[in-house]
Specification:
With 226 residues, this protein is of the alpha/beta class. The protein contains eight helices and eight strands, in the order E-H-H-E-E-E-E-H-E-H-H-E-H-H-E-H.
């Protein structure tokens, strides 16, 4: 089973972060029961604020294995950016399961909820063209600081999440199943992030748990998140 993380700044992480990818790797390692799995993707870097580029390898845990650091994530990238490249990436990596956390950057800078939803559907179509049996777990836009003070933006986030749920329901197929992960109920931007948006250690665990719980409950993949 090959897993690929697809995301924006909350997934790639910055220099010095553990990242929720690291937490998920720990979970997969602990619950695989000896069954083979692999984390795939064309990138391994973290975002370096000093260079304003994804050039850092300074993970908080230097023992994080190099092959488990792989991902398809980018600081400032969203559905808009990932839809055109997901097909070639799935083909190259032979990814079986996509763990996707996108949307906030789209709604904040690039596209409204309607266009973002269209990009979701394009993303799924391109991934399936590369692997007709690919699975995906999609996380809705989670709480963030901008939504706290920008009411129109908060409304767009809420509307996109509704459209995302509809897309998952419409596009789910037995041979290529889709899951909508449940946003962590206890997620608190004051304690689970370091700036109101990007997850700190507790937030990383909660994001990893959202994906792990969805896969365990729906597909019996892995186990309960510990």
């Amino acid at each position: 089973m090959r897993f690929m993380f697809v995301g924006d700044s909350m997934t790639i992480g910055r220099a010095g972060d553990y990242t929720w990818r690291y937490r998920m790797w720990q979970h997969l390692d602990a619950t695989s029961d000896g069954r083979p799995y692999e984390i795939v993707g064309p990138r391994t870097e973290l975002y370096d604020p000093a260079a304003d580029a994804p050039v850092s390898h300074a993970y908080a845990d230097p023992a994080f294995p190099a092959d488990a650091r792989r991902h398809l994530s980018g600081w400032g990238e969203g559905w808009l950016h990932m839809a055109p490249v997901i097909g070639e990436t799935v083909a190259a990596t032979k990814a079986d399961v996509l763990l996707v956390s996108l949307g906030l950057i789209d709604l904040g800078f690039y596209t409204d909820s309607t266009q973002t939803s269209r990009n979701v559907r394009s993303f799924i179509a391109e991934a399936r063209a590369a692997n007709p049996h690919v699975r995906a777990v999609l996380l809705p836009v989670i709480p963030n600081i901008r939504a706290r003070y920008d009411a129109p933006f908060a409304a767009e986030c809420a509307r996109f999440n509704e459209l995302l749920a509809k897309s998952v329901a419409d596009l789910d197929q037995p041979g290529s199943p889709l899951l909508l992960a449940s946003p962590p109920e206890s997620y608190d931007i004051d304690t689970d992030t370091y700036d109101g948006t990007h997850p700190g250690p507790s937030g990383e665990h909660k994001l990893a748990a959202a994906f792990a719980t969805a896969m365990h409950q729906a597909w019996t993949l892995g186990g309960p998140y510990a």
